[in-house]
Amino acid sequence: MADFVKGLFANQEPAVVSSSGDDDFADFAGAPDPTPAAGMSPFTTTAAPSPFQTSTVGQVPYTKWYRVWERVTIDDFKLEMYILPFVLLVIVVHVWGTRKNRKIATRWIKAHAPVLQQEFAQVGYLRVQASADDVMSAGLAQASEKAISDAAKPENMLREKKADEYMTYATGRQNVAFVDFKLTLAKRYNPLMRFGESAISLFFDSFPVPQERLEATLYPFDAREAKIVPGYGKSESTKSVSNSAFDGFVFAVLHKDLMKRLREDRYDLSLTATKDHAKLPIWTTVMSENAEITDTLLTPELIKAINDAGDNFEALVVSDQPMDQPKKLDDTVPRKRINLSIKLSPTGNYESTLPLFQYFLRMPDHLVSAGHFRAEAMRRIKQTREEQISKIRRLDDDEKAEERKLQGDKAKKEKRDQMLGRMSAEEQRKYLEKERERDNKRMNKKKTVKA
Asked: What are the Basic and acidic residues biased-composition ranges (predicted)?
């Protein structure tokens, strides 16, 4: 029986396992069991080969953090090598230009300081007064000498407002309240800006040619000593001082190259008449409101000083009117002043302009003594001032009338809105129709009058 059963299954092959049930593990069905390699421990690991090819060519070796010279080369600073010379050049030019301007300003104050100290009690912004510590340590006499020597130093007389602008100040003189001095220098510290301003002046008349100049403005007391100086008139020395008032007018002697620009820029000079004078150089002209004023102010000393100054002279203006067009009544109040404009010498030699500078400082004395004219000569001048005042007053009245009209219209509108708010819808409709008819009649009436 056993042989019979064995004979039935002897020719059959072993069954094949179907992979349709789990296709994901079909690849691993006949894989052999992994066997460890010979001579290798199961606890040792080996690094897998890198898929990227490594090389030390062109790479910086690792160094300490402070060894910068081992990690960089000169090629890393090519951009800085191009920029650094320009930066150094700008710094050198700026330092040279500012020092050059400071040297020119110091040279000017050294040349004019003796004249200023002779005419004024205080020159510069440092007050000549000994401190309490100096008096306690060295005594009053030595402290006073130290204060005077410190105030006489050029660096204490000048004040640098900008690299191309220096200022100083003087006060303490009879008939003069104070004087402001401004030195305008070239922009040597900025060649591009200096070249640009010079180039623009060639194409536009509104931009004047840059020029190094002195601009001085002197403000006389004009009988206002008690208002400006505290305690004036209380001591015996000030009670005997004569009256420093003089008539108000506009007078100017200026270079013809500046005549057109100054007449357009300054309102006070637009009130004058221009006329050449036989005693003055041909390149100068006189702008005055009256011939009597010209004869009085054009003294032989002034004519000689202008001739000595030559082309360095620009303008000398005596005025009591504002430089800008007055727009309010407060602007028409006379404020007397004397302006002087002189070109600075490129060589530092101011012997030719010192006589004119000294005459400018002493001009208030001549105005106080001789600046009183006949009533006939001042009639036209006063009439011009009154015309300007009446014109401003008329404009002021028109502005006030316009404001009153606007306020009245605003009040009427508020009253109308309140009245409409208390009405019903029908009453509002009737009121608006009557208002519209009233406006149409008014418009038709205006058209009829125009026709």
From this structure: 395-442
